[in-house]
Amino acid sequence: MAHYKVDQDDWLTVYLKYLLAVFNFFFWMGGAAVMAVGVWTLVEKSGYLGVLASSTFAVSAYILIFAGTLVMVTGFLGFGAVIREDRSCLSAYFCLLLAIFLVELVAGVLAHVYYQRLSEELRQHLTRTLAQNYRQPGAAEITASVDRLQQNFRCCGSNSSADWQHSTYILSPEAEGRRVPDSCCKTVVARCGQRAHPSNIYKVEICGMILTCCLHRRVQLHLY
C-alpha cells in the first residue's frame, strides 16, 4: 500500500510538471506576441507620432515591449524551475506571476479611468493640428503624418471633413481652391480636394477616433 502511495505521488508530480510546462509554453508565446506587437508599432506606425499631442503612443509601445520581455523571462524561469525542480526558482516564478497580475490589474483600472479623457484630448489636438499646422513652414513631418493617416485609414478630418474649413492651409491661396487636402480623396490626383463630394472623398471621417481606438486596442492586448 505504501509503495502504491509513492507511485501515485510520483505520477501526480509528473503530471503537474507537464501541466506547468504546457502553461509556460503558452505564457511565453503570449509574451513574445505582445513584444512583437510593440516592436511592430514602433517600426511600422511611428509615422503617426507627428500628429499626437504627447508621446502616449510611443510610451504604450515601449510598455508592450517591456511587458512582453518580462513575461518571456518569467516563462523561461518557469521552465527552469520545472526542469530543475528547484524550490527557490519556483518561488521566484510565482512571485513574478503575482507581480505581473497586480501590475496588469492596476493598468486595467487606469486604462478604464483615463481612456475617455485621453480620447477627447487626442481628438482635440488632432483638430488643432489640422487647423494650425498642416502644410505650414517647419511642419513637414506633421503634414506627412496627417496625409498618411487619412489615406491609410480612409478618413477625412478629426471629427468630420468640416474640420478642414478652419484650416490655415485651406483658407490660404496655396490651397488653390481645395476644400479638403488631396489626401482625403479616394483617388489622389492633383487638386482633387477641390471637390468635397462623397463620391470623391472618404466619408469615414473620424480619424481622431481611429487613433484612440488603436491606443485602446494596445491596452487591451497588454491586459489579455
Structure commentary:
With 224 residues, the chain is an all-alpha fold. It has helices at 2-44, 56-84, 87-132, 140-153, 207-223. The longest helix has 46 residues, at 87-132. It is elongated and about 80 Å long. The relative contact order is 0.11. Mean pLDDT is 77; it is low at 1-6.
Quick summary:
With 224 residues, the protein is mostly helical. It has 5 helices and no strands.
The span between the termini is 46 Å
What summary fits the major beta sheet?
Answer: none
Q: How big is the Rg?
A: 25 Å
Low-confidence stretches: 1-6
Number of helices: 5
Structural class: mainly alpha
Secondary structure tally: strands: 0
| Mean of pLDDT | 77
Percentage of residues in strands: under 5%
- Quaternary: single chain
Overall form: elongated
Helix-strand pattern, N to C? HHHHH
- As a percent range, the share of helical residues equals 55-70%
Provide the fold topology.
Blueprint (H helix, E strand, L loop, with lengths): L1 H43 L11 H29 L2 H46 L7 H14 L53 H17 L1
